[in-house]
Please model this.
Amino acid sequence: MIRACTPECLCRSGAGIAFRHAGVGALRAWVIMFPSYTIPDPTPGLRKTPFWKKPHILLLTVPTLFFLIFLVLPLFFMLVVSFLKYQPMKIYTTQITVESYLRFIGDPFYRKVLWYTLKLSFAVTFFSLLIGYPLAYFLARTQSQRKGMYLFLLLVPLMVGIIVRTYGWIVIMGKNGLINNFLIALSIIDRPIQILFTHTAVLVGIVEVLLPYMVLPIVSSIQKIPFSLEEAASSLGANRWSVLYRVVIPQSLPGVISGSVLVFTLTAGAIVTPALLGGPQIHTMGTVIYQLMVSTLNWPFGSASAFVLLVMEFLIVFLSINLLLPITRKGKRV
Amino acid sequence: MKFSQVLFKLFIICVYAFILAPVVVVIFSSFNPTSLALFPPKGFSLRWYQAFFEDPTFMRAFFNISLKIAVIVAFLSTFLSLLVSIAIVRYRFWGSSFMETFFLSPMMIPHMLIGISLLLFLSKIFVGDIYRLIIGHMIITIPIAVRAIYSSLSGLNPTLEEAARTLGANSLQTFYRITLRLTFSGVLAAMIFSFIISFTDANVSLFLTGPGLTTLPIEIFAFLQWESTPVIAAITTIQVFMIIIFSFILDRLVGLTSFIKY
Model:
C-alpha cells in the first residue's frame, strides 16, 4: 500500500532517522520540500492516526452531538422535572419531591386511566393480530403479479398519517355518517345511534390505524420461512391447519412479537385517535398527559405520568417477550 | 377452488376494505356539495376546495409551516443520516453496533415522550417554535432515513470506491462520483420518507407547536375537536394525493417492500 509520507511514518520507517531528534521546524521544512514523496508503508494498519482524525469520528461527531443534546439530555431533564415540586405560577422550582409519583399512585382517577389504557392496548394488540396475521400470510405467500400493489395499498394508509384516517373514521361513525345513513336507509333504525365517542369506536379506530405496524414485521418473518418446509410438512401428511399451527406460526413468532410490541406501545402512547374518536368522556394515558402538559401546565405531574406509563410498558413488554421466547425456540427445534 | 380458499380470499378483501375505508371515505366526501359530511356523496362539487383556498389559517398551516418544515427536515435529516450510515457501514470500529442502535433508538421510544421532553428542555433554553418543530421532527425521521440509506449503502460494493481511490480520486470526489451516485435511490428515499413523516406527524408536533405556529395535522386536530366540515376532507384529500404520488416514487426507487425489513 502506497501512502503519502508523513514525517511520522518516515521516522518509523527509518528513512527519516536523522530528523527524529530535529526540531519541529525542521520536520515542517522537510514536508514542504517533498510534499508528494511517497514510500511504501512498511506497517500498514499499524500507523497511528490521531483519535480525532479517524474517519468515523469525523463523520459521527455532529450527529452524535445532535442526538445527545436533543434526545438524551431532554429525556434526563424530563426525569428531573418529574421530581420537582409543582407550583401553579412557576414552572421550574428547585424543590425535589416524589409528590407527583405519589399523587399518581394515590389518585383513583389516574389508576383507572392507566388500567383502561393497558386494557385497550391489549385489546388492540389482540384484534390487530387476529386480523393482521392472515393478511400477513397472504402477502408473504401470494404468487400474484399484483403483490406489489397489495403491499402499496397496505402502506399508503400508513403514509397518509393518523389525522387523515381518524378523520375518515369520524365521517364513517358520526351522527350523519356512513353507518348511520346506511342503517337508516335500510330502516333498521329510525334515529341515528351513538357510535362515535364510545369505547368501540376508539378500539376500531386504533386497530385500523396500527394494523400495518402489525402486518409488516410478520410478513417479513413469514417470508424467511422456506416454502419447502410447508410442502414437506404437508407431504408428510399434515393437513393445512397443522402445517399452519406447527410450522408457520412457531417460526413466525419473532415477527409476531415485534409487531405486537410495536402495536402495544403505540396504542399506549396514542393521543390523537382516542381524543377524537373517544370524545371528552374517554380518557387514555395519552390524552390525560397531553392535557396535563398543554392545558393544565402541570409539567412535573405530566412528566411523572409519562414515566409511569413508560415503566409499565417496559415491564409488560419484557415479561411477555420472556414468556413467548421459549415457545419460539421450541418451534425452531421441531 | 376450494371453499376454504374462497373464504380466505373474502376475508382478505374485507381486511383491505377495512384498512382503506377511512381514506376512501375522506376522498369521496371532499367532493360532496352538502355541508354535512355525507357518504355516499349526493352530487359533485369543488366548493370545499375553494373554501380551503380561501381559509387563511389552513393555507398558512399547509404551505407556510408544514410544507416548509417538512422540506427543511428532509434535507437536514438526510444529511445527518448519510454521515451516520457511511460511518457505520464503511468503518467497522469499536462500538459501531452500539452507535447503530443509538441512532435507531427514537423508533423504540414513544414519540409522546420525545415531544414532551423537547417541550420541557427547549422552553428552558428558549428555542423558537419553528426550530423546536424542526429538531423534534429530525429526531423522529433520522432513524428511518438511516435505515433507508444504510440498506442501499451496504448493497454497494466497497471495491468500487477503492478502485476510484486507486485511480486517483480524492475522498470527496470518490464520495460524490461513486458513493452518492450509486446510492442515490436510497438517499432520495430517505428524503421522501423524512418529508412524509414530518408532514404527517402528530404525536411530537402536538407538544411542540406554539401560538401562531401550528402544523397542518395539529390545526386539523384542534379544529376537529369542535366541529367537522368537509373542508377538512378537501385538505386531507390534497394531502393524500400528494403522499400517494411520493409513495409511488418511493416504490419505483427502492420498492416499498424494502420498508418491510424490520
